[in-house]
Amino acid sequence: MLKQLALLFFKLGVISFGGPAAHIAMMEDEVVRRRRWLSRDEFLDLLGAANLIPGPNSTEMAIHIGRRRAGWPGLLVAGSCFILPATLIVTALAWAYVRYGSLPQTDAILYGVKPVVIAIILQALWGLGRAALKTKTLALVGAVGILLNFLGVHELVILFGAGIATGFGNRVADRMRRGESLSPIPATFLFKTTALAAPSPTSFGLWPLFFFFLKVGSVLFGSGYVLLAFLRADLVERWRWLTEPQLLDAVTAGQVTPGPVFTTATFIGYVLGGLPGALVATVGIFIPAFFFVAVSGPWVTRIRRSATAGAVLDGINAASLSLMAVVSWRLGRAAVVDWTTVAMLVVSLILLIRFRINSAWLVPVGALFGLVFGAIWGA
């Protein structure tokens, strides 16, 4: 089982372009549809739990799945194998950046990969949505979540609000049916984190770098834009370890490579401190994900046994999918930019849904198409 986990998540780490929504969609395709390691309901419960803790959601999903399949060894193997490919690729990019002063061109690859990624996300949303939105109430929760997200409401407010609303509604319904008194909604599964004290060094050092990224990994909720704000506030404005262009190049490296966007830390660590800096930054930002999943994972099945807590989790799952839907819409607007990408999106959807082609094959094919198209168009 450990070997299967290692091979699967290493493969996903190599091909998973497109950010957390795409990564989660690929995991759903592999562990629910193909291998049947988890049911859709179990997968959704893990997704809801991952959304409630800080850190990179897709990495935490890999860790959750590994723990569910093979306990503590699986937790370590799945998470590490998912992170490793991106870490190696970003380290290579950082080496080239330090040596030559710029990033290699990736526009052609991304042109072909992005429409395929959108198709993979849409396929996952369809399958997960049928499992998560199993009542009219949950469908309404999902719709409200989409609306609030478009209006700019913070992701955590949407998630917790959906959970509390569905849990309270479940308790009220039980009270009306049975005449029982209304007890408080169990909240033992809501995990609070305390920010680690950030160091305030006057000069660069490996330990301050480690504790900075440990803090970021421990408290960061939300999108890559939130990560950018954290990095800019301390590394550029406060400590002046990086320049603004260097930070943007680091974020770009994390976004254009497969795997978790948090490998931006790997790039920054290498630029600042070579290989030791890359290692220290990577370990610092990802350790909290392993810790929070290890602590929260055992509670997921216990939550499901309680009717009220299960209803809360149902609401969180519905809201999680609403956030994923909004992300896919925004990504789609940037990915589907002409008739060629529209055709790629449609063909990818047909291959995924009608012919059940493995998404692992579609991503490299999209990348190859992008390179060929770019070479012809560029010529």
Topology overview:
Layout: H1 2-15, H2 20-34, H3 40-51, H4 57-100, H5 107-132, H6 136-150, H7 155-178, H8 206-219, H9 224-238, H10 244-256, H11 264-305, H12 307-335, H13 339-353, H14 359-378
Helix pairs in contact: 1-4, 2-4, 2-5, 3-4, 3-11, 3-12, 4-11, 5-12, 5-13, 5-14, 6-7, 6-12, 7-12, 8-11, 9-10, 10-11
Please describe what this structure looks like.
With 379 residues, this protein is an all-alpha fold. The chain has one domain (2-191, 290-378). 79% of the residues lie in helices and 0% in strands. It has helices spanning 2-15, 20-34, 40-51, 57-100, 107-132, 136-150, 155-178, 206-219, 224-238, 244-256, 264-305, 307-335, 339-353, 359-378. Helix 5 (107-132) runs antiparallel to helix 12 (307-335) and helix 8 runs parallel beside helix 11. The longest helix is centred in the N-terminal third of the chain and has 44 residues, at 57-100.
Number of domains: 1
Q: What integer value in Å does the Rg equal?
A: 21 Å
Instruction: Categorize the overall geometry.
Output: globular
State the end-to-end distance. Answer: 48 Å
Largest sheet: none
Using brief descriptors, characterize the structure shown.
14 helices
Structure at a glance:
The chain has 14 helices and no strands.
